[in-house]
Specification:
The structure is a homodimer.
Chain A (H helix, E strand, L loop, with lengths): L1 E10 L6 E11 L4 E6 L5 H8 L7 E6 L2 E2 L5 H11 E4 L11 H5 L1 H5 L6 H10 L15 H13 L5 E5 L7 H18 L2 E5 L3 H4 L4 E6 L2 E7 L4
Parallel strand pairs in A: 3-8, 3-9, 6-7, 7-8
Antiparallel strand pairs in A: 1-2, 1-4, 4-5, 9-10
Bound molecules: adenosine-5'-triphosphate (2 copies) and magnesium ion (MG) (2 copies).
Chain lengths: ~230, ~230
């Protein structure tokens, strides 16, 4: 579903340059749940942003399906992300002036599409956001904001979901509910999920766990629970 | 060290009103490590903000030592926070235009004080920030930003440290290092720590664990590991 081929990402220049990804190659299997773990600063968010076309690589190639992202212009890239990718950001990135409900359906509004009402209800009730829909992000708890960010990524039922530590601010129960929901997206709807997490119990939901260190893949394993 | 007496905090008005704290009474013991756990939206961040004088209560009283926060004017409250309280925010709240180093010593700069160089070195090396000091927040990983926020709260060696989910974005090793550091602050320097966390292993470092639900204390226990 997605692939990094010898990807290098360098931030900055000269002595201040940071080699966030150091020649990383990774294949994300379609219809599978892949978890990515690694120390803080090891390159997980950078990898996710490059795979989702949100950040340009310094060298190497990124493929989504059989499309090389470098062959797309800005408009094509934007459309691909909008139509095929959902992204849960580590810092949520909600629009402060919109309500939770407006934030959740924003990808659809931008595409001029109407939400599937049944699916919207499923997403809202599973993530327990029903009584916070008219609140703005500043009026929500940290975990509520994180769940709104997750709902936004799921609302378009994209082929490919990238989730950057989506349960970092959730208590174990809400976290487990979100993880179950992601697991169902794979089992029932054949979506592809790439989850960055520091939580071993979240990673245990995946089919495969990839370990990063210093911008490279250092290990991987089939999930212990499958 | 800090006390909430029948504290009620209501956000909004009329039908949109949210009773984030519903008559909560809690005593934080001096020189102790208290953990606060509870479901997302149960009032943990609100409680911390009210205890630290960052938010005004709707009714009830908050005491820091034997000072009733309601008796202080804005300047006195600001000075009390600056001199006696350190706060690690759930959303970090770093200044985007300052480097990591500048963010860390900001409480001292504001007070016109110089950092204790030895202590600054201890904080920076324990939190592994030594090679990121001249980076700005947008150039840091999520976990690095969180560690900078923690360093800033610790740099003044305040009597009272409030930490709102300070390890939510950290891998288990960096998280354990931060928690050990907080534990030492209590054991070696008699500081008082109030930690909000979703992580049972972080809560296990505390002397006492308080459980919140719907803006009230519903349970508490002495820590299993002391
Ligand atoms: N400015 C506000 N206006 C309206 N409601 C608010 C506001 N700020 C917080 N709330 C509500 O108050 C309740 C408690 O919020 P709080 O941030 O204290 O929760 P929390 O326990 O820290 O949750 P989390 O674990 O998700 O961080 C939540 O239901 C939230 O929606
Ligand atoms: N804009 C930037 N300029 C310079 N360095 C950067 C920039 N963005 C990220 N970095 C660096 O790249 C490295 C990888 O960052 P990344 O955000 O991918 O880490 P991560 O694995 O997601 O960490 P965490 O678990 O803390 O979220 C970090 O060392 C970080 O400091
Ligand atoms: Mg990250
Ligand atoms: Mg909170």
């Amino acid at each position: 579903a997605a692939r990094a081929i010898e990807v290098v990402k360098v931030y900055g220049e000269g002595t201040a340059a940071v080699r966030a990804l150091d020649g990383i190659s990774l294949e994300i299997d379609r219809g599978r749940f892949t978890a990515i773990m690694g120390a803080s600063g090891s390159g997980k968010s950078t990898l996710l942003h490059c795979l989702a076309g949100l950040d340009e690589v310094t060298s190497g190639r990124v493929m989504i399906g059989d499309i090389d992202l470098a062959t797309l212009d800005d408009n094509e890239l934007t459309r691909l992300r909008r139509d095929r990718i959902g992204f849960v950001f580590q810092a949520f990135n909600l629009v402060p002036t919109l309500t939770a409900a407006e934030n959740i359906v924003l990808p659809l509004s931008i595409a001029g599409r109407q939400p599937d009402r049944d699916w919207l209800d499923v997403v809202i009730s599973t993530l327990h956001l029903g009584d916070r829909l008219s609140h703005r992000p500043s009026q929500l708890s940290g975990g509520q904001q994180q769940r709104v960010a997750a709902a936004r990524a799921l609302i378009t039922r994209p082929d490919l979901i990238f989730a950057d530590e989506p349960s970092g601010n959730l208590d174990s129960r809400s976290g487990a509910q979100l993880l179950d929901f992601l697991r169902k997206a794979v089992n029932d709807f054949s979506q592809t999920i790439v989850l960055v997490t520091h939580d071993p119990s979240a990673a245990a939901q995946a089919d495969r766990i990839v370990f990063l260190a210093d911008g490279q893949v250092i290990d991987e394993m089939a999930s212990p629970s499958t």
